[in-house]
Amino acid sequence: MTNKPMKAKDVLVAGITGTTFMTAFSYLVSELDGENFSEPERLGQLAKRLLPLLNKEEKLTTGWTAHYMVGMLFALAYVELWTRGKIKPTLGQTLLLGGVSGILAVAIWKTTFKMHPLPPMLSFNKYYLQLVPAHVVFALFAALGYRLLNGAKASKQSIN
Description:
Layout: H1 8-33, H2 39-50, H3 56-83, H4 91-115, H5 124-149, H6 151-159
Helix pairs in contact: 1-3, 1-5, 2-3, 3-5, 4-5, 5-6
């Protein structure tokens, strides 16, 4: 995988796979906890508070689009690291990458909420706490999508 050119397909598959399973995880945690931790819904809420003329459909579309675009940015960074051989999509390195991504996400969300003129009312600590494992799920499924797309060679290398 070292020095292999990065492909848009790698980023798309890793980003869509990781974001989809991360979102499912957030909905599951929301259901178990009784509080909404859905990133797309939270992003839509923030957009609606800045742009009150957005209707419900536009709010949801904005939130979901923003969420998947951020997922693509994370996937772009991951694929760059994997294709350059800086890290491998192994279980251990992927768990670490997800944990670091989760900590970065907490910092980004904290900054977003502090800078937003009308931040939502929510249990911020619980929201931040679920972001770390949510990003571990993102990393695991982004790596799985990447490995499946890149065939047996990537899968064999990632087991070691």
